[in-house]
Amino acid sequence: MTTSDAAAAPHSELVVMCRGLRKVYHDVVAVDSATFNVARGEIFGLLGPNGAGKTTTVECLQGLRKADGGEARILGLDPQRQSGELRPRIGSQLQQSALPDHIKVWEALDLFASLTPGGRDWRVVLEEWGLGAKRKAAFYSLSGGQKQRLFVALALVNEPELVFLDEMTTGLDPAARRDAWDLIREMRERGATVVLVTHFMEEAERLCDRVAIVDRGRVVATGAPQALMAEHAGGVHVAFTTDVADVDWLTAVPHAGSVVRHGPRVEVEGDGPVLAHVAAALLAHGIEPHDLHLELPTLEDVFLQVTGHSMRDEPEPAQRARRLSLG
Amino acid sequence: MRTLAKMVWLEIKLFAREPITLIFTLALPLLILMVLGGIFRGHPIQSGRYVGIRTMNYYLPGYVGLVLASIGTISLPVHLAGYRERGILRRFRASGMKEWAMLASQTLVSIAIAIVGSLLLFALGAGAYNVHAPVSFGDVAVVFVISAFCFSSLGVLLASVMPTARAAQAVGLLVWFVMMFLSGTDGPLDLLPSGLLSVGKVLPLYHVVIPMVDAWNGFGINVTQVLTVAAIGLIATVITLRVFRWE
Lengths: 327, 247
Prior knowledge:
Number of strands of chain A: 13
Shape of chain B: globular
CATH class of the largest domain in chain A: Alpha Beta
Number of strands of chain B: 0
Largest sheet of chain A: 6 strands, mixed
Radius of gyration of chain B: 18 Å
Number of domains of chain B: 1
Radius of gyration of chain A: 23 Å
Order of helices and strands of chain B: HHHHHHHHHH
Helix content of chain A: 25-40%
CATH superfamily of the largest domain in chain A: P-loop containing nucleotide triphosphate hydrolases
Strand content of chain B: under 5%
Shape of chain A: elongated
Oligomer: heterodimer
Structural class of chain A: alpha/beta
Order of helices and strands of chain A: EEEHEHEHHHEHEHEEHEEEHEHH
Largest interface: A-B, 27 and 20 residues
Strand order of the largest sheet of chain A: 5-6-7-3-8-9
């Protein structure tokens, strides 16, 4: 844990309280003392590589799996012992789930709406999520994006206070992914709190108010994406290309740190207003690059800093075994 | 209850939209009926409890039992295990579907399909082999419902312990064929060696066939056998509630 306020509520009411959650499969620790909170109205991301234990964590929080240790309260309820009370109040979009091939869109919504009496009129939800034209289409005939929208509609038909979205955009093409992001923002605007499981750094950066970075079953950092980047990812980088051989004098520019050169590409590490100072210095030396730009740190850099390895690294052999067992 | 009703109706519609499995399940007993009908024609049974009854009036009610058995041991487990394998059960559960509603809907759908199968069977029997209608509809209905409950419970139990739809199908088919040969639905039980006959007696279909034949031919309700069938169903249900897995 590298962020001190991880266990504290950032504001107002807690809808998810997860403290020291632990889950072991045989002798492999899938989730190792995960601790984080989610406040009402947040979009909260669980971010990490495949097999990090994110799905297991949210499955425990939804009462779909029994944790081996720790404590969880969802909307003030115990997800294991009070699942009957909890289910109608949460919405769930699961990884690796399906509907019968020949069920029609309206039939699925009608059935799921009946599971929570007093929810919304499914006909309205159907229209809201753009499924009106596909009302009578069979599940198997839907495109990936349409299936995703149907699952979202099913997760929201009971008007949940809290929605769990597990790898919602995996397998979608970039355009459909952007649509899905809009859907998620829309959910929040309608008043739901969203817990988003993802391995896409960009998705977490764009959508989440706060994220918990998960690696090998552990929550290694928690906080707002901007705050994490400021805290862990060091400074910004100014990059450009030039034919001029000697640019080492750039290290003397105010706010600049190290200078790295890869062929014609030059990267200056720095902080604050470093871009303006580098630009001025380049002009003063008669260099006018066309591609001078600022590279901001990303959550990827945070991940690298905090864990010491890249998100895309192949896991260690032991980790790989766990990855397989987790599916 | 509203969910249960929707679920039952939905499952019936789903079956109708993908009738291949249904046709297979319902056609097998019809085919066997035709084969045996071709062999025995209208000969009366020569000895034993049912002496004097025309052979096809003995076999047809037995085949009603066979229809119930094929739905319970083959179609239901394959269907339910397939749901689990594909994450459909997981999806239902996460949205708050209750276990009893899921299992009850499967049982009710099985009974509905079995009624259709039995009517088809009777139509063929009456049309081609002059099989008479049940002497007592009431008795047949009682035996039918209890037997359907028994086989559905066994089917759900099988689905609960089988890891995949394929495994469920293999085991289900095996159980079904063994039951068919050893329960009096595929040739007279008198011809079975005593060892095989005692195996037959522990199989549920044996205990379904006897009261079904009795009820159909006006022998009344065979209470011992019907209670045995009900007990098997109850035991299977109790075990199922302990071992049922959503995923």
